[in-house]
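lol forgot to send this yesterday, sorry. struct tokens for the thing we talked abt
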């Protein structure tokens, strides 16, 4: 086989050796293209805007205008975070699929060469540098997804607290779902 993974083995790469692959950039651009093609608005927020957002300690002390402003801000933050969470989910799945595919290809290559026991094949799979990079990329993508998921649920708590205060003040009027159809 011309492009064998064998012979490229060394220690597992360090974290700073893992860089965003062009495939990841292409995947992110592809997601944005699909969303734009469907005509859906993409949530936009600057990192500065998010960094400056603070949860009011006691929303009952806010004026009606400040409360609705906070509600609007946290709605936007949640929308943005949910969009990023969706992209991270796609990325996580893609990276895991890349790892599984490369592992299967290498396994088949090692099996076809003959002379290797299953234990030897397992050891070669574990020590393969390229495969280790794919695994590390999948793990990083999964960790990013988990972090965004945790942030989203935290932001949702902030949103819920503000929503309850708006409801308590009678500033939110809930429409019957049948009225919306």
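and heres what i got for the seq, position by position
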């Amino acid at each position: 086989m011309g492009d064998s993974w064998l012979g490229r083995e060394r220690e597992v790469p360090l974290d700073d050796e893992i860089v965003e692959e062009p495939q990841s950039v292409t995947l992110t651009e592809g997601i944005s293209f699909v969303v734009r093609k469907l005509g859906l608005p993409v949530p936009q927020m600057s990192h500065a805007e998010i960094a400056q957002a603070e949860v009011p300690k006691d929303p009952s002390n806010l004026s009606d205008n400040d409360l609705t402003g906070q509600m609007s801000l946290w709605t936007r933050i949640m929308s943005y975070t949910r969009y990023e969470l969706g992209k991270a989910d796609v990325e996580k799945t893609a990276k895991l699929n890349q790892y599984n595919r490369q592992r299967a290809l290498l396994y088949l290559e090692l099996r076809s060469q003959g002379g290797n026991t299953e234990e030897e094949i397992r050891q070669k799979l574990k020590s393969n540098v390229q495969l280790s990079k794919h695994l590390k990329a999948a793990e990083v993508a999964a960790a990013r997804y988990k972090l965004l998921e945790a942030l989203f649920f935290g932001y949702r708590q902030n949103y819920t607290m503000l929503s309850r205060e708006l409801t308590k003040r009678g500033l939110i009027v809930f429409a019957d779902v049948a009225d919306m159809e």
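The CA atoms of residues 91 and 141 lie 6 Å apart. anyway ping me if u want another try
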